[in-house]
């Protein structure tokens, strides 16, 4: 029974470093893929996420499929998640790198085409997000901001 937890094919530090490198790489890849990937996950985005997780699995465990190795990897990933949450809370630079910045999409009832393009959003995507908040025309919107989590914040004209 004790061998169930103690038999690990790779050194402890090797598993921790592998998990850290893969975790940071995946977080940064998701960050550069745009806010839409996070906030509006459709079939394409979901398939991408699932395939990425499968693709990086072996690079993390290095062939070590032991229970102990899995627990080390899981613990490392949770610790990195907590660490990044703390860093993004305490550091403006870390918040920018790992979360990005909000993006103004509509100003005084006018869509900002470059902002939509930069965020890989179509006018239809914006319309869907606005309708979910009860707004049916861009002309009703003073400002629409795409938040770092992919959600849309709206201020209506006259508010």
Task: Write up what this structure looks like.
The termini are far apart. α2 packs antiparallel against α4, α2 packs across α5 and α5 packs across α6 (92-99). The protein has helices at 2-6, 12-32, 35-39, 43-61, 67-90, 92-99, 113-118, 123-131, and strands at residues 103-107, 110-111, 141-146, 152-156. A hairpin with a 2-residue loop joins β1 and β2 (110-111). The radius of gyration is 21 Å and the shape is elongated. The protein folds into 2 domains: 2-99, no CATH class; 103-156, 2-Layer Sandwich (CRO Repressor). The longest helix has 24 residues, at 67-90. Helices cover 61% and strands 11% of the residues. The protein has a 4-stranded antiparallel beta sheet. With 159 residues, it is α+β, with helices and mostly antiparallel strands.
For the structure shown, list the relevant keywords.
61% helix; four-stranded antiparallel sheet; alpha+beta; 159 residues; CRO Repressor; elongated
In short:
By secondary structure, this protein is of the alpha+beta class. It has eight helices and four strands.
Order of helices and strands: HHHHHHEEHHEE
Largest sheet: 4 strands, antiparallel
Fraction of residues in helix: 55-70%
Number of helices: 8
Mean pLDDT: 85
Distance between the termini: 65 Å
Quaternary assembly: single chain
Strand content: 5-15%
pLDDT under 50 segments (min length 5)?
A: none
Estimate the global geometry from the Cα principal axes: elongated
Could you tell me the radius of gyration in angstroms? 21 Å
Structural class computed from helices and strand pairing: alpha+beta
């Amino acid at each position: 029974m004790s061998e169930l937890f103690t038999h690990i094919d790779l050194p402890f530090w090797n598993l921790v470093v592998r998990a850290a490198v893969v975790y940071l790489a995946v977080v940064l890849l998701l960050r550069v893929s745009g806010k839409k990937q996070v906030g509006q996950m459709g079939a394409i985005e979901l398939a991408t996420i699932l395939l990425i997780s499968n693709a990086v699995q072996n690079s993390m465990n290095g062939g070590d499929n032991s229970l102990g190795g899995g627990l080390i990897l899981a613990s490392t990933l949770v610790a990195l998640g907590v660490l990044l949450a703390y860093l993004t809370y305490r550091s403006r630079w870390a918040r920018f790198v790992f979360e990005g910045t909000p993006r103004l999409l509509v100003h005084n009832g006018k869509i900002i085409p470059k902002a939509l393009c930069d965020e890989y959003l179509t006018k239809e995507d914006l319309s869907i997000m606005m309708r979910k908040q009860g707004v049916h025309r861009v002309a009703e919107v003073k400002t629409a901001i795409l938040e770092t989590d992919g959600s849309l914040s709206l201020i209506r004209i006259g508010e």
